[in-house]
Specification:
The chain is an all-alpha fold and about 300 residues long. The chain is about 80% helix and about 5% strand. It has helices at about 1-10, 20-50, 55-85, 90-125, 130-135, 135-160, 180, 190-225, 225-260, 265-290, 295-310, and strands at about 10, 90, 170.
Length: about 300
């Protein structure tokens, strides 16, 4: 029976650190999940309904909200169930499915932010060519590229991990993670390590470097223009910069945590660091774009006013 459990189930050990706090944490996380669903759905509905928002930048913002719904739904239902459970076993298929969803969510977030940076770069640095370069066909191609490439890359990563013979089943996290499973392997994992490194470089560091490059070019253009121009650029780019910085910090914390010895960190801090990666961006993205971009804010207020009148 023990061998069967090791073979077919993983044990998420970090839940034992929550203890009696599980019930208030459950209520808080349920409310948080409800807010994520509601806020991101509002952004999607507003952008899809309002024809004046059918522009590349707003389409990509809607994709960010779709990705937030995707990642949150792949994490919260299972997490909420585990909070109220005494046993935190997850089957191998369910574990690898969760890895696929969370990892693709993370990759999609970075690729979409990279596309938004490219859109702002063309709009500010090459405004006369914007409508030619960012036409509907280009937008569809960029969106498809942002979704398809990470999906196949993560699928290959998981395929490599599923074949590893494992000498344990304990995962020191509150959700399944590929690196934690690779560390349980009974054999050398050189191929997994090399491919994981290449995938991280292609889906994280390349987009990261590109975003930094585009905003550096935007800053150089702003430096040579008027204060009014700088104000418009600041208003347009600030939400993207905030979103990018928040996501980079939370992503770095998760990567660092997976490489660090959890036992040397305070249990509560370890749980918070594990949660922020899949919680903070989906919560803050709709707030940042809804409050900072006047066009979206105006349409949200109009939608809320119309809803009050109907009721």
């Amino acid at each position: 029976m023990e061998n069967s459990t090791v073979s077919f189930y993983f044990n998420l050990t970090m839940f034992v650190n929550i203890g009696h706090y599980r019930y208030p944490v459950f209520v808080f996380c349920l409310l948080l999940y409800s807010f994520i669903l509601s806020a991101n759905l509002v952004i999607i509905v507003v952008i899809s309904r309002e024809r004046t928002l059918h522009e590349p930048m707003y389409v990509f913002i809607a994709l960010l909200s779709v990705n937030s719904l995707y990642g949150s739904t792949g994490f919260f239902p299972r997490f909420l169930m585990d909070l109220l459970s005494d046993a935190h076993l997850i089957s191998r298929p369910a574990c690898f499915t969760q890895i696929y969803v969370i990892y693709t969510y993370a990759s999609y977030e970075m690729t979409i932010l990279g596309i938004i940076a490219y859109d702002r770069y063309i709009a500010i640095c090459h405004p006369l060519h914007y409508h030619r370069k960012m036409n509907n066909k280009t937008v569809r191609k960029l969106a498809a590229l942002a979704w398809i490439c990470p999906a196949f890359g993560i699928m290959a990563l998981i395929s490599l991990s599923t074949w590893l013979p494992l000498c344990g089943n304990e995962i020191q996290k509150i959700f399944c993670a590929n690196w934690n499973i690779v560390k349980l392997s009974c054999v050398k994992t050189l191929v997994n390590n090399i491919y994981g490194l290449l995938l991280t470089i292609s889906t994280v560091f390349f987009p990261l470097c590109y975003v930094l490059y585009t905003y550096l070019r935007i800053l150089m253009v702003c430096w040579k223009n008027s204060a009014e121009f700088k104000g418009k650029v600041f208003q347009s780019c600030l939400p993207h910069v905030i979103t990018f910085v928040i996501y980079s910090i939370t992503g770095f914390c998760d990567i660092a945590l997976s490489r660090y010895n959890i036992e040397q960190i305070h249990p509560f801090v370890a749980v918070i660091l594990s949660l922020e990666f899949v919680v903070i961006p989906p919560v803050l993205n709709p707030l940042v774009y809804g409050l900072k971009l006047p066009e979206i804010r105006r349409q949200i207020l109009r939608l809320l006013t119309w809803y009050k009148i109907i009721n």
